[in-house]
Structure formats: structure tokens, C-alpha cells
Design brief:
By secondary structure, the protein is of the alpha/beta class. Helix content is 14%, strand content 31%.
């Protein structure tokens, strides 16, 4: 069956219409058009991953940033939670794990740009949304343009500037953007004032962003002063109920930017009907595509890799030209001098989160372990990095017939095109829903007709048409482009679809062939998951995840692995890592050893029976698998509370280095039927 598209109607690109942009000392400029960002005068798609420096050990920042870089991230975004830095009024702390200066320098060493999200209000599932308790007790309105509050903001922004002075893009540094506030949907005047204060305090960057979502027509923003950025999650653990959600619209090619579901726990619906965010003035940019999702006490979804990969691929197909994930790397909350720093109902918020764990089920876990979506995302990221200049100006064109939200049988597809060439995107995945296989699919873009394929199982992919490959016209390929190195172009075989290449009528089925001056290599989907492009060179790990640290190829997993490096003519085999024997872990039942300072916090929803286990290990190598069933668990090492977990059906893994050489106990609270579960 032939599948066609709506008519392509090119739109005009607006340029130099925003009060944004800036140059570095070398003269390179970052700017924004109405469709895409530019860098050095060329279309540019950044890939942004959220990683909170204050929720991680500073001694591990650089290594983890290198892993992010290897996963295709080009920009790291990070919140500065005010409460972390000024828990007590007038006492500022930018030392230790609060050292934003070191984090930005480590990011530059890793080859990453930085977006600082400076608040003042941040959310991020932090206590008070990141506000210190003391500011909530002031007699004036917060998140408002009154002088008393703005004076406190000026102090906060000035203190940030003292730490990041000289690190901005205009100084030759790597801070390219500043986000002011978060999820403020109805006060454009206040957002404009925050940008003004930030600039006055020295926080000068080419780009200023605000979150653009709202439950209605988009957040009210100061038009032309900031770029609105959007998001989308595959679940909504902030929803008050305990029922399965309706099918998410994020798995359909709708062209939707504004996810009205984000923040519904905190954002009130707008009552004014005269506002519409002018989307046509801005590129489609995201800052909160869910790389995973955190669990709340009352909703505990299990994130599957395709849940988030399919969502991201759909958004790129829908025109996303800044790919931003929240969270990309998990972390651990700190405990302050006066309180814990997690969001809870006790502080007036609608949700209860773990005291310490902010794992988020992300691509890189709370402790830096690689999850499967890290690998899937990287397949998309390598393509965007190598071909983003071509993709960015292309416009989204929808399928000939729209697919409604309850349809599980129709093909979901769209394309991005300039009218002659482009990429066809197909998504055949819906979270927690089985889709019917679609047979004999022939995609007709108007410029090219693809051969018939069958779309089976849980897959999503994209295929090129009339793509320039080293000066040659690739009429179509039924394979997904990955990256290039020199004159070699790498593609991934789409599961269940034979890889065919057509260069101006000449067809190739070989997985490794040469056409004129270029070489085309097709790797299996499973192999592509472990392909990395590091310092311009293609590597493939054998069931391991490679990254580059201080110029050396490293492996994220413990052990010794075979790997391959593309030399330009062939793959050269080498080994990486070292043989390592992981710790032996022992877990036994025991009587209550002590009161446990935070055990009382496990009585959410009423009294629960608490059982205890003793845990030990014989080295600090590897992870301890804690297989328990309960409502929540807390780990104490030498009496200190060091880790916790809300049970959601997965094995709880903690680093043995937290346990080794210490007397350690686990408190487990009784499970009740009072939360949404997927196990």
C-alpha cells in the first residue's frame, strides 16, 4: 500500500528578529532563526542532557561528563538550586559538590557546552522548588516584580556570577545559554525582568531560554527576548490518581510542541483567552524530553528503553531542532543543615519523592551505570551531529491521513524535507500498548518512492531520500543513517527490514560496498547500539560502552573487552579495560540495630512494619544487587543514611564502595496497595 504525505508548503525563515545571539573572541557566532539555531553561520542542532552537579560527587564529574559526550550529548544543562547554596540566609556555599565553576571547567575539558538554569525557582523535585526556606517566610510576594524580592534575586544572581565569571561564550568559555525561572506560565513581565537582572549581574550569553509549556496556549513569555523550550514525558508520576494513563500523544507525529501535561501538579490553568505563544517566531527546542522518569510514592512506572527513544525520535521527526533531555544523568539529593532537600507533601507539594535518590531511570543512572536508552539515543545523536546542518532547515510534513490517539492499526509516519530531499520517520511503538503490524508499506514522498517494507514489532526508525552522500545522490535507503568518518558512511539495519540502497537507479544490497568515491557500511541494529564516535573516529564495543577520558579510550563497565576502531579502510581490533573481580555481597536478616535517623520518613500513608537486613561485601568493586520487595528501603553505613529507594519492581543496585569496610544495614518498609505499579 502506498503511503503519501500532505502537500509541502515552504514557510519563510525569520532572521535577526530576536534580541539574542552573541560571538566568542574567535568571531564564531551563535544565533537563532525562526526555524533553527546557527553556529558559525551554519544551521546547528545541539543535543542537551541534564546533569545536576550538586547531586553528584565532584571527583566523578569529569568522568561522567565524558560518558555523556560519548553518548552524543553536546550541551550539559544544570540547575543551580538556591537552597543548596544559601540554605541559611547570607551564608553562601559554592564549595565541594556545590562548585559550579569546577563543573563548568570539567564540562569544557569533556568538550561540552553548558546551559545554566539559574532560577530563582527551579523545581527539579527539590524542596520548595529550590527556594531556601527563609525566603518563603518573607513578608513579600515571591516570583514577582516587587523590589524586596528582586533585591534578593540580584544578590543570588550576583553570587552566581562571581563563580562563573570568565566562563561565558563571549569570554571564550563554554556557557552558551542561561535559563531564567522555570514553569512560570503567566508572567511575561517578571521573566523579562529576570533576564534584565541577569545581564546587569554579568550573566551574559548568546541565548536566554524559558520553559514554554502551559495547560492552554503556551506560557506567557517576553516575546523576542527569550527562546521558549518544551518537553515531553512518557509517563506522569505527578498525576494524583493511581490508574494507568491514556495513550500518550507523544508517540504520534502531531507537530505538537507544548506538552500541557507537564507541571499539572503545580501549574494552574490560565483563565485569560487572549494569549497565544507565537511558535512561528522560534525553532522547536526542547529541554525536558524525558530521558527516564522519577518515581513518586503514589506512582511508580517502569521506564523501558523504547519508551523514551521512540519519544525522542518522534520529536526529531516533528521538527525538534534542539534535542534536550531531562534527566540524562541521575544523582543523589543532599541533606542540608536544616532539612532534607527532596520534594514532599510535608512541604506543601503534591508529591512525595525519595529523600536521597534522584535516579530518574535515566540513560546514566544515579551512580553512572549505562542503561539501554543511552545506546539507543546515541544512534540518533550521531546522526544529528554529522548531518544536523542538513536536517535543521528541513520542515515537518505530516502523513496524508492523521492518526487518532486510539488507533493501534494505522502507520504513524511523517517526514522532514526541503521539497527535494529529506528523511521519512516511522514510529511503531506505543508505551504499554501493542500495535498491529503494518504490511506492504510503500512510502511516497512525492520526490521518491521507497520499496515496500513490513513494519513489525516494537520499532521506530527513519530513512533518507535524495540524500547527498559525498557528492552522490542516494535516492533512498531502507536503513537508518548513523554517522560518517571521512568518505565512509555508516547505516544501521532496521529490525525486520532488508537494507537496500539506491543511487540514481542502481541498487545495492551488500552490507559493505563502494559507490564512486564513497564507502557504505551497514551494521546490525544490535551492533549500532555500541557504536561511538569519539574525537571523529568510529569505535564499536563488543557488548560494552566506550568513552574517551583524557585522550584515552575507556569502558564504562568493569572488565576487559574486545573493541573495533575504524581506520578509514578497515576495522582494527583492540582490547580495552582490565580484568576485575567484583565484590561478593552478603545480605542476611537481622534485628533492628538502631533507630535509623530517617526511618520514620518511610511511614508515608501511615504506620508500616519495618524489617532490617545486614549487608556486607569483600571489596569496593562493582555493585550490590539488593533484591527486596517492600514500599521503600534505606541503606545506613556506619549509622549514616547513604542511599534509599522506592520499590518499583526493579533490583536496587548500589555501589559496593558505599558499603565496603563499613557496618551496613538496610531498613525495608512494608508494601501496601496504595500506589500505581507496573510490575
Amino acid at each position: 500500500m502506498k503511503y503519501k504525505f500532505k502537500e509541502y508548503k515552504p514557510t519563510t525563515i525569520l532572521k535577526n528578529h530576536l534580541n539574542l545571539g552573541g560571538k566568542n573572541p574567535e568571531g564564531e557566532e551563535i544565533n537563532v532563526t525562526s526555524r533553527y539555531f546557527t553556529r558559525g553561520g551554519k544551521p546547528w542542532i545541539g543535543i542537551m542532557g541534564e546533569f545536576h552537579f550538586s547531586r553528584y560527587d565532584r571527583n566523578e564529574w569529569y568522568k561522567e561528563l565524558c560518558k555523556m559526550k560519548a553518548g552524543g550529548i553536546t550541551i550539559v544543562s544544570t540547575y543551580l538550586f538556591w537552597i543548596y547554596h544559601e540554605e541559611i540566609e547570607g551564608e553562601f556555599d559554592f564549595t565541594g559538590d556545590n562548585d559550579i565553576h569546577k563543573f563548568i571547567e570539567d564540562s569544557k575539558r569533556a568538550g561540552l557546552d553548558v546551559v545554566i538554569r539559574i532560577g530563582p525557582w527551579a523545581h527539579g523535585e527539590c524542596r520548595n522548588g529550590g527556594f531556601p526556606d527563609w525566603i518563603l517566610n518573607k513578608p513579600y510576594k515571591i516570583r514577582d516584580n516587587n523590589e524586596e524580592y528582586l533585591n534578593k534575586v540580584r544578590i543570588w544572581y550576583s553570587k552566581i556570577y562571581e563563580q562563573v565569571k570568565g566562563l561565558f561564550y563571549g569570554d571564550g568559555g563554554n556557557i552558551i545559554a542561561v535559563q531564567v525561572e522555570n514553569e512560570l506560565v503567566d508572567n511575561a513581565e517578571h521573566l523579562a525582568k529576570l533576564k534584565e537582572i541577569a545581564i546587569e549581574c554579568g550573566l551574559k550569553a548568546p541565548l536566554y531560554t524559558v520553559t514554554g509549556w502551559n495547560s492552554a496556549a503556551g506560557a506567557k513569555i517576553p516575546v523576542d527576548e527569550v527562546v521558549p523550550v518544551f518537553g515531553g514525558y512518557c509517563e506522569a508520576p505527578w498525576e494524583a490518581h493511581k490508574n494507568k494513563l491514556a495513550p500518550s500523544p507523544h508517540y504520534f507525529f502531531t507537530g505538537m510542541r507544548n506538552d500541557s501535561a507537564i507541571g499539572t501538579d503545580l501549574i494552574e490553568k490560565s483563565t485569560e483567552g487572549d494569549w497565544q505563544l507565537p511558535y512561528e517566531r522560534y525553532p522547536f527546542a526542547t529541554c525536558e524530553l524525558g530521558g527516564g522518569i522519577e518515581v513518586t510514592h503514589h506512582r511508580r512506572p517502569i521506564i523501558r528503553p523504547m519508551d523514551v527513544y521512540a519519544l525522542s525520535l518522534v520529536k526529531v521527526g516533528d521538527g525538534n531542532n534542539l534535542v534536550g533531555y531531562y534527566m540524562y544523568h541521575g544523582g543523589t539529593n543532599k541533606i542540608g543543615k536544616l532539612s532534607t532537600f527532596n520534594e514532599t507533601k510535608a512541604t506543601g507539594y503534591p508529591n512525595d519523592y525519595p529523600i536521597l535518590s534522584y535516579d530518574f531511570q535515566g540513560p546514566l543512572s544515579e551512580y553512572g551505570e549505562v542503561r539501554e536508552q543511552y545506546r539507543l539515543f546515541n544512534m540518533l545523536h550521531m546522526f544529528v551531529q554529522d548531518f544536523g546542518e542538513v536536517l535543521a532547515p528541513m520542515e515537518r510534513v505530516g502523513s496524508e491521513n492523521d492518526v487518532n490517539r486510539d488507533d493501534t492499526t494505522s502507520l504513524r509516519y511523517c517526514m522532514r524535507t526541503d521539497g527535494k530531499s529529506g528523511f521519512v520517520f516511522v514510529n511503531h511503538y506505543q508505551r504499554l500498548t501493542k500495535l498491529s503490524d503494518v504490511k506492504n508499506v510503500s512510502l511516497d514522498t512525492g520526490a521518491t518512492q521507497f520499496p515496500e517494507i513490513d513494519v513489525n514489532g516494537e520499532i521506530c526508525f527513519f530513512m533518507p531520500f535524495n540524500m547527498d552522500i559525498g557528492g552522490n545522490n542516494l535516492t533512498y535507503a531502507t536503513a537508518q543513517p548513523l554517522c560518517r568518518q571521512g568518505d565512509t558512511y555508516f547505516f544501521a539495519e532496521i529490525p525486520g527490514i532488508e537494507a537496500k540502497y539506491n543511487f540514481d537507479g542502481e541498487e545495492f544490497l551488500s552490507k559493505d560496498f563502494v559507490y564512486n568515491n564513497v564507502r557504505v557500511i551497514t551494521v546490525s541494529f544490535d551492533t549500532a547500539r555500541f557504536m561511538r564516535k569519539l574525537s571523529g573516529v568510529v569505535y564499536i564495543g563488543k557488548e560494552c560502552d566506550l568513552y574517551e577520558e583524557n585522550g584515552k579510550i575507556c569502558v564504562a563497565e568493569s572488565g576487559k573487552y574486545d573493541c573495533k576502531k575504524w581506520t578509514g579502510n578497515e576495522f582494527e581490533v583492540f582490547t580495552v579495560g582490565e580484568e576485575c573481580e567484583n565484590a561478593n555481597v552478603t545480605i542476611t536478616d537481622c534485628e533492628k540495630p538502631f533507630e535509623g535517623e530517617y526511618v520514620k520518613e518511610m511511614y508515608i500513608g501511615g504506620e508500616r512494619e519495618i524489617t532490617w537486613k545486614k549487608i556486607s561485601c569483600d571489596s569496593e568493586n562493582g555493585f550490590a544487587d539488593i533484591n527486596y520487595v517492600g514500599d521503600a528501603a534505606q541503606l545506613y553505613a556506619d549509622g549514616k543514611f547513604v542511599a534509599d529507594d522506592f520499590y518499583y519492581g526493579k533490583t536496587w543496585r548500589v555501589p559496593c564502595k558505599l558499603i565496603f569496610g563499613k557496618e551496613c544495614y538496610i531498613a525495608i518498609s512494608e508494601m501496601k496497595d496504595d500506589f500505581y505499579k507496573e510490575f
